[in-house]
Amino acid sequence: MANRKHIQPLIAAIESMSMEPWNRWRIENPSIRPDLSGVELPEANLSFANLSYADISHADLSRANLHHANLRHADLSSTNLRKAELTEADLSFSILQGTDLRGAILGNAKLRGTHLIGALIDQNATEGQEKRVRGGVSKLEKLALRLFARKKRKDHRQVNGDTKTHRSDKHT
After folding, report:
1. What is the residue range of 61's domain?
2. 89 lies in a domain?
3. Which residues have C-beta within 8 Å of that of residue 44, sequence separation ≥ 6?
4. Rounded CA gap, 145 and 90, in Å?
5. What is the rounded CA–CA span in Å between residue 86 and residue 107?
6. Which of 35, 63, 84, 111 could form an S-S bond across to 3 if both were Cys, CB 3.0 to 4.6 Å?
């Protein structure tokens, strides 16, 4: 569970409608890795918040505004980010394992080195994503397409009662 000493400055910032008090607290306490695990802040305005290196695992940030938030190296595993606004957010090197990003908007989010295994993500989440390859698709779009293809194969096997996966299935 979240550390009360870490969450109090964040709640104060949300109530003041400015991330300045939180970001100041982060500057004044550089050695603290904020423990915000399990926090419930649906629809919170966290735009421009410095949440780098924070443990935000198992939290509810559904419909939260994280526009331009710094989430570098943050642990967001198993966090609910459904319909969250993440445009321009820096998610570089963050952990999104098992994170629910369905309906989230990731336009121009920085995703370098992001761990997305098991994350739930919509294809349209990449709308506005900066293209990594000229004329091609972004890395996030490729990842999302692979995740959807994997889920579709799994669903198809369940419908047909086939629970075994064989290497030969890939070639038929």
Report:
1. 1-149
2. yes
3. 14, 61, 64, 65
4. 22
5. 7
6. 35
